[in-house]
């Protein structure tokens, strides 16, 4: 196997393993799925930056297809984690908001999620390895937009 293929295979295996472990920890501790957490985190971050968090902007930020995000938002809305309301700024679209329950769920889940990421991903790495990993990720992501 050539170096590029070996690196790709190692990356894919690592990603699957780490994603599964972190998702399992999150679900066990909080009852949230990774997509739930990803949406809560993105809405919390965008809400701090923008007046209106539109579905299209949220989908772009997350790198998700609009249809996938809409289905996820509907599931979360039924569980009272998010709400969609007309944007007060211009009234042209819906604003995605965290409900009180959604904010509590995110704030409760966040420390455990970070601990799980440290346990399964960053913890075993040295500071130099973390710096290298971050540099590699920035290089690969440079100039690429989510589709």
In short:
The protein is 70% helix and 7% strand. The protein is mainly alpha-helical.
Give structural notes.
By secondary structure, the chain is mainly α. The protein has a two-stranded antiparallel sheet. The longest helix is centred in the N-terminal third of the chain and has 28 residues. It is globular. The mean pLDDT is 91.
- Following the backbone from N to C, one meets helices and strands in this order, namely HHHHEEHH
Specify the biggest β-sheet.
2 strands, antiparallel
Q: What's the total count of β strands? A: 2
Judged by helices, strands and strand pairing, the structural class is mainly alpha
The shape is globular
Q: What would the average pLDDT be, to the nearest integer?
A: 91
Helix content: over 70%
- Rg, rounded, reads 17 Å
- Helical stretch tally: 6
Strand content: 5-15%
Strand arrangement across the biggest beta sheet: 1-2
How far the N terminus sits from the C terminus, by CA atoms, comes to: 30 Å
Low-confidence stretches: none
Break the fold down into its secondary structure elements and pairings.
Layout lengths: L2 H28 L3 H16 L5 H8 L3 H13 L3 E5 L7 E5 L1 H23 L4 H15 L6
Antiparallel strand pairs: 1-2
Keywords:
147 residues; mainly alpha; 7% strand; globular
